[in-house]
Amino acid sequence: MTDPTKLKAWQNLQSHQAQMARSSLKELFAADPARFDKLSLLLPGMLVDFSKHAATPETLHLLAQLAKETGVEALRDAMLAGERINTTENRPVLHTALRAPKDAEILVDGKNVVPDVHKVLEAMGAFATAVRSGAWKGHSGKEITDIINIGIGGSYLGPQMVTAALSHAHHKRLTAHFAANVEASDLERILARVNPETALFIIASKTFTTAETMQNAHIARQWLLAHYKGDEKAVARHFVAASTNTDGVKTFGIAPDNMFPFWDWVGGRYSVWSAIGLSVMLMTGPENFAEFLAGAHDMDRHFAAAPLEANAPVVLALLGLWYRNFFNHPAYAVIPYHACLGRLPAFLQQLDMESNGKGVTRTGERATTPTGPMIFGEPGTDAQHSFFQWLHQGTDVVPLDFIAAATTPYGNAGQQAMLLANIFAQSEALMTGKDNAAEPHRNFTGNRPTTTILLDSLTPRSLGALIALYEHKVFVQGAIWGINSFDQWGVELGKVLAKTLEGELKSGTPGEHDGSTLGLMKYATSRKK
Ligand code: F6P
Question: Domain extents for the chain?
């Protein structure tokens, strides 16, 4: 693996950084009145403004040079062509195939995968239409009113985030619930609110072995059977699965007809476009789901073809890397100014941190540069009243992404103006700061960079494009760092230890552990309910 820090482009960027660090964002705007036009991109349904960054067109050019020298374009093309770029799992990475049009051809081992993708989409569509119309009945003949998605990680965060984002399009009779946590109240509180005769459970799990999901799925099944006095036939009317594991689904007792499959070339955090998105389709309908896929496909085409310096995911990736590696900013924040996008930061945490939280390169060497940053976020304007103090006056600089919709079906014009005023005020304040030598506690250093992504409106299509924008951004950064963004071995060790400890806690006989672990086990098991 080429060490990116040894490349000419990297060294040029180091010298350029020393020069850029001498000018403030305010000075950059003063020096170039056309800066906004040069450093923003108009895509279908959205504007991406990256002019409030410590960058000029020359910076972008030098960064794009780094992308070229590290082979980003070749790896992108290999991914889109279905090559096995997930080397540690020997798999292609083809979430883009999930949103490819019917007539596309994407080959895996010589077989076009697109017809299978559309076959599953059609099956999901037929099922969703039946549930939504009321033609699909529960075991006692009643229409479904509650969809309960049981899944975790990518089998939860994507469906939950997208379902909430598209609230305005929800079917009036249906309510969606999401149970992920193994902590019992997560599922129990949902079960307490729904009627077994009108509940539909989606067991969403790529592997169908994930401990939390399997535990919750079995509890839900027992709950249903308890209501129907053990009549196993009820399971077929109230349980469906989205998975790649046909045998696991069968063993659990879900009929093959009620299973919506997908493929090992879909990573968990990239799976909302697959059968894992069934809850989204049930809540918003097949047409909206198709629009969601189409929006992502628009972004895929842009990513595949636009020149690097005018390629939105590439530019966002390069700017992120600019701060991470050349300014040493270890974190960035995502602030959606839309209550419906409240779970976007959590979704992006998995997407980015599970993808690029790696310290070893694709060829097994230690990475020579810091890799994926820490990400956090909450919706604005709420967040303005919590951690924004730290963003404005804290000693660390945290680049931010602001995301908003210019128009909304909610509220009135006055409310929307107030919202937009807040977003624009925050990025302006973060950039310009305020000198106040007399009262240092009221001094704002400013010069804090932000990107603003302004959607025309939050629709299935623009949401699809927005998520794909971030997916490709993460890909580009991983490609430059030379890491595999598509595995997640870092979550394995904890899973294995938990299995051992679970056995010991259940039997009451602790094994060999450090003093702290033993002390915690002893204290916990000595407490009375
Ligand atoms: O533990 C991490 C992880 O493997 C994620 O990558 C994945 O999204 C999640 O668990 C759930 O996995 P599954 O869909 O197989 O239940």
Answer: 42-94+291-433+444-489, 102-288, 492-526
Cα(84)–Cα(94) distance, rounded to whole angstroms?
Answer: 10
Neighbours of 255 (CB within 10 A): 13
Which entry of 385, 434, 499, 522 is annotated as an active-site residue? 385
**Along the 529 residues of the chain, how does pLDDT read in single tens digits?**
789 999 999 999 999 999 999 999 999 999 999 999 999 999 999 999 999 999 999 999 999 999 999 999 999 999 999 999 999 999 999 999 999 999 999 999 999 999 999 999 999 999 999 999 999 999 999 999 999 999 999 999 999 999 999 999 999 999 999 999 999 999 999 999 999 999 999 999 999 999 999 999 999 999 999 999 999 999 999 999 999 999 999 999 999 999 999 999 999 999 999 999 999 999 999 999 999 999 999 999 999 999 999 999 999 999 999 999 999 999 999 999 999 999 999 999 999 999 999 999 999 999 999 999 999 999 999 999 999 999 999 999 999 999 999 999 999 999 999 999 999 999 999 999 999 989 999 999 999 999 999 999 999 999 999 999 999 999 999 999 999 999 999 999 999 999 999 999 999 999 999 999 999 999 999 997 7
Active site residue 73: no
Residue 125 near residue 185 (C-beta atoms within 8 A): no
- List all residues 6 or more positions away from 153 whose beta carbon is below 8 Å from its beta carbon: 180, 210, 268, 269, 350, 354
Fold of the CATH domain 42-94+291-433+444-489:
Rossmann fold (3.40.50)
Instruction: Say how many Å lie between the CA of residue 373 and the centre of ligand 1.
Output: 21
Range 102-288 classified under CATH 3.40.50.2000: no
**For this structure, is 495 an active site residue?**
yes
Q: Do domains 42-94+291-433+444-489 and 102-288 have the same CATH topology?
A: yes
**Exposed e or buried b per residue across 386-402, where buried means at least 16 C-beta atoms within 10 angstroms of its C-beta:** ebbeebbeeeebbbbbb
Is residue 439 exposed (0-12), middle (13-18) or buried (19+ Cβ within 10 Å)?
exposed
End-to-end CA distance of the chain: 55
The residue type found at 162 is V
Q: Which of 207, 264, 278 is the pocket-test mutation for ligand 1 (most atoms within 8 Å of CB)? A: 207
User: Which burial class, exposed, middle or buried, applies to 73 when counting CB atoms under 10 A from its CB (0-12, 13-18, 19+)?
Assistant: middle
Question: Is residue 377 within 8 Å of residue 335, measured between CB atoms?
Answer: yes
For the chain, counts of helices (H) and of strands (E): 21, 13
Structure tokens at 94: 């083809």
Q: What is the dihedral of CA 29, 33, 36, 42, to 10 degrees?
A: -170
279 lines ligand 1 (CB under 6 A): no
The torsion angles phi and psi of 53, rounded to 5 degrees, stand at: -125, 155
Output the CA 208–ligand 1 centroid distance in Å: 9
Which two three-digit tokens encode residue 98? Answer: 């999930």
